[in-house]
Structure formats: structure tokens, C-alpha cells
Amino acid sequence: MESKFSVRVRALVVCSALLLGACAGYSGSNLKPGVSTLPEVVGSMGQPAMVWKNPDGSEQLAYPRGPAGTQTFMVYVGPDGRLQRIEKVLNMEHFARVQKGMTQDEVLRILGPSGSQWTQFYPRSNQLAWSWLFCNSWNVQEFFDVMFDASSGIVYSTGLHPRLGGLGGVQPPCGQ
Prior knowledge:
By secondary structure, the protein is an alpha+beta fold. It has four helices and eight strands, in the order ααββββααββββ.
């Protein structure tokens, strides 16, 4: 007869394996550039939120991990249907690429879609705000904001603001 302890240990091992498998699919860390195929990417990471097909036959897929997630992954697949690379895009390097005068489509290709709960229209100024939640270099949650002219869909400005949704109105740490 098996002890309760060994049953619990087995259950813990199975749960740990399932969680590790889910984490691998979350970021695509189980996929290999030059080897993994588009069906393997979708099988591992799920259906993308957005897909862009390029004239050369390559594709770009956006995987925002939310709604309260702090990561978006861009997956690049070559014309041969094989994975080229996966990039985490919610970081200062990618935010710096968003410039005044860009279109909404250009911003989407850099950062992917923002969370619908963080999209706001300001009728008095005729501006549309898109915000992305991310982990800053201090390991706390912050928003990157892009303001568009609502009529033209052109970037008007960008900025950062803290997420003050933690206990006592402070920025929650990442991983929460």
C-alpha cells in the first residue's frame, strides 16, 4: 500500500511538470530558431493576437501575455515557415523605436496590441491613448503610453507612468 506522502510527492512532481511545460509555451523557450516550424510555434504558444504577412512570405506574430501581463512576444517566421527569432518587446529598447509621426499600424508592429482596458479616448483633445503594462528596470510595474491624434491615427507623443495599483497605492512588484 502506498503512503499518503508518496502520493503527494507524485502529485507535486506531475503538477510541477505541467507548470514548467506551460511556462515553456508562454514564451516559446522550448522552440528552436531555424528548426521549429510555424505549426510548432502555434502549437506551443497558441493562436497569436495579430499576424502580419510580409511580401517575401515571412510572417510576424504578436503574443501579448495579459490582460494584466507585463510581456509581449513577437515571433518572426521566415518564408520557409521556420522560426527565425522570438523577441520580448515591452522594454525601453523597443519603446524608443516609437516616434512622433508614426501610424498606429507601425506601433502595433513594434509593440503588439495594448490591453483593451488601457485604451482611452479623450474627446476634448481628440486624442487616443494606448498603454502597455511592463516591468521596468527596478522590477516594478509601469505603463508605456502612446498618444495618437484620434482623427489621423498618428503618434502625437509617448510617455511613462507608474502603475499605482498595489497595496497602499504603490507600484506593485513584477510577478504579482
